[in-house]
Amino acid sequence: MNNILVLPMLLPIIVGVLLIFLRTYGRIQAWISIAAMVVTAGISFYLLHTVQTDGIFRLDFGGWEPPFGILFVADSFAVLLVLTSSIVTAVCLSYALISTSKELQTMYFYPTVLFLAAGVNGSFLTGDLFNLFVCFEVMLLSSYVLLTLGNSKRQLREAIKYVSINIVSSWFFLVALAFLYGAVGTLNMAHVAERVAEVGQTPLLTTISIIFLTVFSLKAGLLLYFWLPGSYSSPPAVTSALFGALLTKVGIYALFRVFSLIFYHQPEITHTIIGIMAALTLIGGSLGAIAFNDLRSIAAYNVVIAVGFMLVGLAIATPAAIEGSIYYLIHDMVAKALLFLLVGTMITLSGTSKMAGMSGLMKNYPLLGWSFFIAMLSLAGIPPLSGFIGKVLISSAAIDSGSYVLLSLALLSSIFVLYSLLRVFKNCFWGATIVSKEEQLPLRRGVLLPCLALVFLTISIGLGTEGLSPYVTDAAETLLNPGIYIDAVLGIIQ
Amino acid sequence: MESLIIILVGVLTTVAIYLVLSKNVVRIILGTAILSHAVHLLILSMGGLKLGTVPLLGEEAETYVDALPQALILTAIVISFAVTAFVLVLAYRVHQELGTDNVGAMRGSDDE
């Protein structure tokens, strides 16, 4: 029964390999890859229910019981994220089916997206730190390819920077793994957690934890986000949406996992650093979001703000804060994909990415305009949309724990999100129409369908919080009580 | 033996950082390749080095070497080769498209 746990990673890889042989058939590739991601989403939904009823379960590869061998572990937190990422990937793929150029379709776009999804799902599910590194690399190599697919000089230029930064951060990851292995002699997350709890978090281990913090911050865009706006704003809309929805979230997941399961014994050092970094990220992201006139840069800086916001929850680390962060993580995957897809559609329609070149889009494309409006409200955290509940929980936790600086920065950043997107909405959708009804580019049939699917998702996450809450509560409980996770991994096999 | 390897790791890292900080793309790529090999040696020495033994644990083994770091760096080497190969191809394309291999000249404006 447990073997099903490998499918969220294995299925995309197998389908991706098969699609390589169908290179010239763009549409067939698209349909097969959408089907694969829908099946993956179905499997992760089933996993989520199983975790609720039977508790955390694991798959030991090759029958090597922990702490020997590598393993996949399914707890609510990981499976929730697998479910969301699979759904978002499926929606982005359907956008690609409708809108992407023929060239992109036949240049291994779909297999690469599937490999990216496999890397992301693998990173969420793995229970071994080295395996986490491997899944990160699967994901990163796919993202390098996706970033360079397309035909602009800007993409190549950004790719060189993005790839160099990520190679260096992978190097830091290996250094941290080497020192951790030298210090505790194991890389199984639960086993490491147990050993660290036994010997206490010595200064050496705290130092190692800070190396891990550096690595994951580079991947998540926490304070070290200087590479992010350039590389997220240059590729085609679909790729940007996938990047904005998935890539930083894996780094955030790793931060949550490592600093709640393993290195939680010295919160006055590690969690304080995380809090300071989150605060600086919020400030930097807010300034970036209002500074630019380029739609894609504005969207990219909104990713940065969201990263800072989620890490405020980890810095506070009370049950309410962690729950809020999980809600916000799920919301942000959906809403960021929606934002990037809408911005991409607007750029295709008006032929420019500058705000100055767009005006009065509302008259010609009302549905697009209102979708953007809902995305904006959702990102700013207006009830009843999905961003609201996460913001409320994190804010109330910040009040309870007396972190007023973080609270005020988090709330101010929401205003900056609202302002930056409202500026886009006002400039691009209202005002006089530049293009007349006859000259307007037709909105290709179905382009808005994926966006509307995401709008529906963000509304239903907001309204259906009640249905989501048992899973999120369970996920937060597992994160805050590492004993549950350790018992599930190192306990007797079911 | 460990101290010798650690010094070697330090030397390799120094060389690699020098190369990575230069402006030429090919030098940066060589730097990243050396950087990853330095960390592979670090992982190997963290697992403990023993002379003249193999990572096999027989029934009556007197000495043996920890096999895990070797398995880890085997994976890491494969990954670093793949990434290096990709970056080399990328650098070639960048040179074709942008006509330069100097990262300082890749700053450029957004309006393309």
UniProtKB/TrEMBL annotation, chain A:
The keyword Membrane applies. The chain crosses the membrane at residues 6-23, 30-48, 68-95, 107-124, 130-150, 162-184, 204-228, 240-263, 269-292, 299-322, 334-353, 365-385, 405-425, 446-464. Coiled coil: none annotated. It is found in: Cell membrane; Membrane. It holds the Pfam family Proton_antipo_M. This is Na+/H+ antiporter subunit D. Its main location: membrane. Keywords: Antiport, Cell membrane, Membrane, Transmembrane, Transmembrane helix, Transport. Residues 127-415 form the NADH:quinone oxidoreductase/Mrp antiporter transmembrane domain. Belongs to the CPA3 antiporters (TC 2.A.63) subunit D family. It is a multi-pass membrane protein. NCBIfam families: PRK07691.1 (NF005818), PRK12663.1 (NF009306).
From TrEMBL, chain B:
It holds the Pfam family Oxidored_q2. It is a multi-pass membrane protein. It is found in: Cell membrane. GO terms for cellular component: plasma membrane. The chain crosses the membrane at residues 6-21, 28-51, 71-92. Gene3D superfamilies: 1.10.287.3510. Keywords: Cell membrane, Membrane, Transmembrane, Transmembrane helix. InterPro entries: CPA3_antiporter_subunitC (IPR050601), NUOK/Mnh_C1-like (IPR039428). Belongs to the CPA3 antiporters (TC 2.A.63) subunit C family. This is Monovalent cation/H+ antiporter subunit C.
